[in-house]
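Re-running the complex after MR caught last week's input typo. The corrected sequence lines follow. Everything else is unchanged.
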Amino acid sequence: MSEVIVVTSGKGGVGKSTTTANLGVGLAMRGKKVVLIDTDTGLRNLDLLLGLENRIMYDLIDVVEGRVEIKKALVRHKKYENLQLLPTSQVKDKSAVNPADLMALCDELRKEYDFVIIDCPAGIEQGFQTAIAGADTAIVVTMPEVSAVRDADKIIGELGRSEKDNIKLIINRIRPAMVDSGEMMDMDDINDILAIKCIGQVPDDIKVVTSANRGEPVVGESDSQAGKAYENIVGRLLGEDIPFMEFEKEGFFKRLKKAFKF
Amino acid sequence: MSRDLVTIKGGKDGFRLLVDSSASMEEIEAEIKKKLDENPGFFPEGTKFELEVADLDRSVKKGINQILSQHGLGVELSAKKDPPPVSDEQSQMPPQYFIQHDGNVEAQEMTVVEHTVRGGEEVTSQGSVLVMGNVNPGAQIIAGGSIDVRGTCRGMVHAGAWGDISAVVIADRLMPTQIRIANMIARSPDIMEKSDFAERASIKDGQIIIEPIER
Ligand SMILES: Nc1ncnc2c1ncn2[C@@H]1O[C@H](COP(=O)(O)OP(=O)(O)OP(=O)(O)O)[C@@H](O)[C@H]1O
Ligand SMILES: [Mg+2]
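Corrected-run output:
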């Protein structure tokens, strides 16, 4: 049984592409056949996160306009050959693809892959409608921030109106110390407002950025909290019951020690 | 007895005006006048009616609009084409209940929303509104009657929106950005406290007060 997942958020820059890349690699590490589709036409960057930019020959637009077969446009990952990327165009705009195109594409890909994961552009305009069209499941990514949660809420409403009822939540870039001091929304507040199943809590972690710069998603890196969090999400997507981890934080004793170190 | 040439029905999206297309303009005019005079003050100024007619003449439609506008009312054209996004998810047959209004007992509908009302969504009802879920930040509920939220209310709620000062707002956890009842507005304190009881907001002595209730 294959699953088509769209990763969306409303607000930009909250970590959709990062999530897509990490879940893709994570699922591939677990032996699944995975294809990632970048639908952020004009602002493509999923290829960068995966370190595949130099291998792109064709793109999503070439496929939907019938210039090449899907197979020819797919870019195989360097390390995991069961992971493929369908990149999008850097120069066209989002109107070049419509919902029906994507639906047909997903139906084609689901025959061969266990997971099709779609990276959605920010916003709720046509690009969003196109990205969600073929999906069975939506993953909404948000951050512990009032405006990001507000946008996530709108997106969830929008998904409901498009009859997408299987919606899951990932809360990204959590800073435990700030949550504790009340400067950041806590997980219970967010879950209470959004009221959809939370499948991941990812801490803010500099390793996410450094690994993205290398083109190697952080998932599975044992010395990274975010890497561990993504690994857990992968497990949950595969139906495993994994408890949420406690984040390492600057606890009371550490702070005391620091205070005494003159 | 012959059937009514003009019928007014209250529904979850407002009032509908049903007109017998065989009636002449004069008959329709007389009927509407009669209906409005029977219920003085029931239709607040600015109320819009949805015209429910398939084959009415343009001129008749125009005539109806004129009569209504003389009473400070109006016609909502093509309201059917563009329903508010939430209403089609609402239950098909809202339960009916009766309220006392200026000595007349009028059948009025209660709008039941069976899900959380999310940011950017708006529910408007001539009657009262029952939400079986949360009202989230950025959502709006506007009701002619009272509003009851079986969950946490964090959005903007306006009860008695057409002047009913006896309307109330009830929620399991009442922490809205703003509460409006009739023409009064109360905004939330800048630091919102979490409430642990169900609470009710109502107008007492000319101001909006909030008190805990049992339920
Ligand atoms: N958990 C994290 N910790 C630290 N930095 C992160 C984390 N998640 C994402 N980032 C950083 O945040 C930035 C935005 O992430 P990303 O590009 O994945 O967001 P996006 O939602 O896809 O943005 P857009 O809406 O522009 O497509 C990137 O620089 C990324 O490295
Ligand atoms: Mg992106």
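None of the earlier attempt is carried over here. Helices of chain B lie at 25-38, 58-70. The pocket of magnesium ion (ligand 2) is lined by residues A 16-17, 40, 45, 119 (CB under 6 Å).
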